[in-house]
Every structure is written in C-alpha cells, then in structure tokens.
Write a structure and sequence with these properties.
43% helix; Arc Repressor Mutant, subunit A; alpha/beta; 3-stranded antiparallel β-sheet; D-Maltodextrin-Binding Protein, domain 2; 5-stranded mixed β-sheet
C-alpha cells in the first residue's frame, strides 16, 4: 500500500497535521486550499482511514492521524535535512527566519540585525514570544517560528535548547530623584512607591521572580505590561522600579535614569535558544542559532 503513495501526499498530511488547518497548511505550502484538500482526500482514500474530523470551525486529527504523524514526520524531517545538507545553507538564497523573543531581547537584537551586512538574502524577523508555555511549544511544533529565545527552562522531550546569555535585574530611579542618588538599602526600597511589571506567563512580578529573598508587600503606584513603559514612567515620576539590566543600561542616558544595584540577592535571568528537536541538525536552523550566538557574543564581550 505504501509503495504507491506519493511523497508529496505525506508532506501535505504533515503540514495539515502541524497546522490543524487546511487554510494555514495551504499558506505554508504555497498551495491553494482546494489543492491541499484534494491531496489529503487522495491520501485518505489510499490508506482507507479518516485522518481528520470536523471540530468547531476547524479540524482535529484522528487517532490514525496521530499514529501516522508519529512515524512519518521524523522521516520527512530527516529527508529535508539531508537534502538541505547536500545543497548547503547559503545566504545567497532567499530565506525568512522567524524568532520569538522578549522585549529586552528584541531591543538588543534589532540594531545588530540591521547592521549585519553578511545576511545576504536572508531576513530575520523578530516576534513577541507567546504568553504561555503551551502556546509557545505548540507554535514551534507547527513551525510558525524557527526558534524562540526564552528565559524559562523547558523539559519537554520533543524540544532542544541551549544556553544563550544571562541578564540580570537592577533598580532604576530618575536622575533628579529627590531622595535617591545611589544604592538603596532594603528599608528605603520599601519606603518608595513602585512601578512594577508582571510576568504574565508566571503570574508574578519581575522582582519577586528573580530575587532570592521573599519580598514584602510594596507600595504599588502602577503595574505595566512593558518594560519600556515602566522605564518611561520611572523617568517621569519619583517612583522606582526593578527591571532588566540590559534594557536599563541601553536607555539610561536617553531617559535620564539612574541604574542601581538591587538591594536584594538577584537570580540570573538566563536566556536559552529553544527549537523543536527535528530542527536540531537542520543546516538552516544551525546557521540561525550560530548567528544569534554571535550577536550576543558581541553584546557581552569586554
């Protein structure tokens, strides 16, 4: 039965399985929706099983689809990687990479990407990382992004990660603050009003998540969802804040803020590269990971 199956039918099946959508699979394959539907129907007829069922406005894989994907997807990935390896990855060919990243990482990377004259016809597009672990892993599995730069530690067996760089948290206050002109003790820290940032994925404030000591309740003046808006509010008020050191150093002069050590024991904000294991030995993905590590090597080198 399998010897008569066109490899393209399996490639279409895997695309639909990953996206769980005919429309998204057609976009990913640069095909029409009727074309994808027709090839999927042919595969189902050859196999004599139903691979997808209607679910709400979309489709869901059947048990047979899960089993087929489990066996076929790794093989197709090996074939793609082998062909890519024979050709070799080259920046002379058009290629768009999508990288999920947090706000500080995007701000650090963008100037380096723009200044990189060695990219050729390759483009690296930065997109904000997903709100929760499940969404992030699902997006990577569906190849909506090539990889993610994330500070969380994942133990999902289907994913591969490697260390990228360490950031830290620090205290910031405006330069003309009436009471602060240098490092603070814990007592003064609690006397001041605070602009906080809540990590939506962990449902915790940034300072609490990356401080070894348990922090007592503070006088919260405002809660932000962006580190840049947090810094802007600190620069225009007498409030203080705990924020990412990389971002504070980058904007300290332009925003006229003091960058001060935390009065508590800080834990490192450890960023890692994360991708699906099937992409670990892909020449293109290996090139991208090497390029990103080179960028951060420039940033943290003496």
């Amino acid at each position: 039965m399998f010897k008569d199956i066109d490899l393209n039918l399996l490639k279409v099946f895997v695309a639909v399985y990953r996206q769980q959508s005919i429309t998204l699979a057609a976009d990913a394959l640069d095909m029409t929706q009727p074309g994808v539907s027709g090839l999927l129907k042919r595969l189902q007829q050859k196999l004599g099983v139903q691979l997808f069922v209607r679910q709400g406005r979309g489709i869901a894989p059947t048990h047979q689809a899960h089993e087929l994907a489990r066996q076929v997807e790794p093989a197709l990935t090996q074939i793609d990687n082998a062909l890519e390896g024979l050709e070799g990855f080259s920046t002379a060919h058009s290629r768009r990479f999508v990288v999920y990243a947090s706000e500080p990482v995007m701000l650090m990377l963008m100037p380096l990407i723009e200044a990189d004259n060695s990219l050729g016809k390759v483009s690296i597009e930065l997109q904000p990382t997903q709100l929760n672990e499940e969404q992030l892993l699902q997006s990577l599995m569906q190849q909506q992004a090539d990889l993610a730069i994330d500070f969380a530690s994942y133990s999902a067996p289907s994913f591969f990660s490697e260390y990228l760089f360490d950031d830290a948290i620090c205290l910031i206050a405006r330069e003309q603050h009436p009471r602060i002109s240098g490092p603070l003790e814990a007592e003064q820290f609690y006397q001041e009003r605070h602009i906080t940032v809540k990590l939506r994925r962990e449902d915790a404030y940034l300072a609490d998540y990356y401080t070894e000591e348990h922090l007592d309740q503070r006088q919260i003046a405002a809660v932000c969802d962006s580190l840049l808006s947090q810094m802007s509010m600190v620069a225009n008020s007498d409030c203080i804040a705990m924020t990412a050191r990389s971002l504070a150093d980058a904007f300290a002069d332009s925003m006229q803020i003091q960058v001060l050590p935390s009065p508590f024991t800080s834990l490192p904000v450890r960023y890692r590269l994360l991708t699906h294991k099937r992409m670990r030995h892909s020449p293109a993905n290996m090139w991208l990971r090497s390029k990103l590590k080179a960028y951060f090597g420039q940033l943290i080198s003496p």
